[in-house]
Design a protein that fits this description.
The chain is about 5% helix and about 45% strand. It is built from five helices and 35 strands. Strands 2, 30, 31, 32, 33 and 34 form a six-stranded antiparallel β-sheet that branches. It has a five-stranded antiparallel β-sheet with strand order 1-7-6-3-35, with no helix packed on it. It has a four-stranded antiparallel β-sheet with strand order 8-9-10-11, with no helix packed on it. The longest helix has 9 residues, at about 90-95. It is globular and about 65 Å long. It starts with about 25 loop residues before the first strand and ends in a 9-residue tail after the last strand. About 50% of the residues are buried.
């Protein structure tokens, strides 16, 4: 039964928002409830899997869907929408063949072991996006960035920073812009060499200046191959929480019998370590250890005296991978973690943590002009019990002291990562708007909801799209407005 055919009293699940959007659009948003603010000017990019099926066959993991960028452009009280797939080899060839031709994080090529042996997962360029140094990049930690034209979203090609990203180097989906210098700090899982026990895991660190030049690299040795998706950035340090989600024996993956997803485990015998990396030298300066756990996404971080304070969404398991590996299972539930704040004492080596809210939360975002400094407001996507909590269905505004305002969507509506966009000539931290793409399961349509960032109970506009947008991962806001010829 399609979402359009559901009865009036039946609440649709989130799964309609996982259906493909194969078409690419380019139009003004004219179906508005409320008005586009005239002091909102810039471009809101989002990235995520635009399709979870090819030729009617579902991919084996949410992480394997092909990357599709969306761009919402705001100027003079008007808004424009455009979406376009990243033209990776995977996208081009599978679109032509209408069948799975590449392995993924959790997807095997049909045909058995011989079709998969020695084949590495493809890079679908589907996780995040950044505009920095004049480059719009689609990011996925399984490979290199892919460059696009910011106006037309036309794919330019794989991007290596003039060869500074070597053939063995991957680039994570969660780089951070350092406010003081404008430099872009990123990392990627790697191998620093081989020893008696096999390959030596490491983090490759990258620092890119505001002109888009990758001018500094280094390697941080690790004990295990971790599932390290994100990090936190303070003014002086990059902070990596190396958690208990690790990659097990990779031999079956190499031999083609199992996927990487099959070999990812939550190992309760492995404590979570915090690796503190100096931003000037890109070398490790201190390491903390605490109870087993993992943090998938981070909020802000800052220094206060001898301490570094870090916000993150804590997980004590990786049961979510079962849902991610079978996204169309009606019993699956996409959820969040526990919003915690960590205090790292660089002088004594002490570590403590406190829970900030009791609302299940993920995708923390904030006003990035305060990255690395103490900020007062963080926004999150939430999962609350409203009778339809299979996906993120609320947003929260949380102050540094833990005061939380939660806005819950109606049952059958499902949200995404909320992103802060500053007003033109903003003066205060929350002078701006919160941008939230929402899927309406009743009508199989999506809309962009715009809230006042200082009072999220005040929704100023809902800009209705002509179609749905499949649930996406992450976004990036820039105050720049691009033309279709922008390179």
């Amino acid at each position: 039964m399609s979402v359009q055919e559901k009865g009036a009293n039946e609440i649709p699940s989130c799964h309609g928002g996982l259906e493909n959007l194969d078409a690419e659009y380019d139009y003004q948003l004219e179906d508005l409830e409320g008005e586009i603010p005239t002091d909102l000017k810039g471009t809101f990019f989002r990235n995520g899997p635009g399709r979870q099926k090819i030729g009617g066959e579902a991919y084996g993991h949410w992480f394997d869907g092909d990357g599709m960028l969306c761009a919402f452009t705001f100027n003079e009280g008007k808004a424009h929408f455009r979406n376009r797939y990243v033209r990776t080899p995977k996208y081009i060839e599978e679109t032509a063949a209408q069948e799975v031709l590449y392995r993924g994080f959790g997807t095997q090529i049909p045909g058995g072991v011989m079709k998969n042996i020695l084949k590495m997962p493809a890079n679908p360029a589907n996780t995040n996006t950044v505009y920095h140094g004049g480059h719009l990049l689609a990011l996925n930690e399984g490979g290199k960035p892919w460059k696009l034209k910011p106006g037309s979203l036309e794919t330019v090609g794989e991007f290596t920073y003039d060869g500074q990203l070597e053939s063995s180097m991957v680039f994570s989906a969660h780089g951070k812009v350092h406010v003081g210098t404008g430099d872009y700090i990123n990392f990627g899982a790697g191998v620093s060499g081989f020893g008696l026990k096999g390959p030596k895991p490491c983090l490759n660190m990258y620092r890119i200046n505001p002109q888009g030049v990758l001018f500094r690299k280094n390697q941080i040795p690790l004990e295990n191959f971790p599932f390290c998706h994100d990090f936190a950035l303070s003014d002086k340090y990059a902070l990596f929480f190396i958690g208990s989600i690790v990659f097990g024996n990779m031999l079956p993956v190499i031999c083609g019998t199992r996927t990487i997803s099959d070999q990812v485990i939550f190992d309760t015998t492995i404590p979570m370590q915090v690796v503190v990396v100096d931003l000037e030298t890109l070398t490790e300066v201190k390491r903390f250890e605490t109870d087993p756990g993992a943090i998938i996404h981070f909020g802000n971080a800052y220094e206060a005296g001898d301490e570094i304070i870090v916000d993150g969404m804590f997980q004590d398991n990786f049961e979510a991978n079962d849902t991610l590996s079978d996204v169309f299972n009606p019993d699956g539930r996409f959820g969040g973690g526990i919003y915690q704040r960590y205090y790292l004492n660089m002088k004594t080596g002490a570590l403590r943590a406190e829970q900030i809210t009791d609302v299940e939360s993920e995708f923390p975002t904030f006003n990035t002009s305060l990255a690395g400094k103490k900020n007062d407001v963080t926004y999150t996507a939430c999962s609350v019990d409203n009778g339809a909590n299979s996906f993120f269905n609320a947003i929260s505004r949380v102050t540094h002291d833990g005061d939380s305002t939660v806005v819950t969507l109606p049952p059958g509506y499902y949200g995404s990562e909320p992103l802060f966009a500053p007003k033109v000539n903003a003066r205060n931290e929350d002078d701006g708007y919160l941008l939230e793409v929402v899927y309406n399961g009743f009508e199989h349509l999506s809309e962009l909801q715009i809230y006042r960032a200082d009072d999220i109970n005040d929704q100023v506009c809902a800009a209705k799209l002509k179609h749905h947008v499949p649930h996406q991962f992450h976004g990036f806001y820039t105050p720049e407005v691009f033309t279709t010829t922008s390179s």
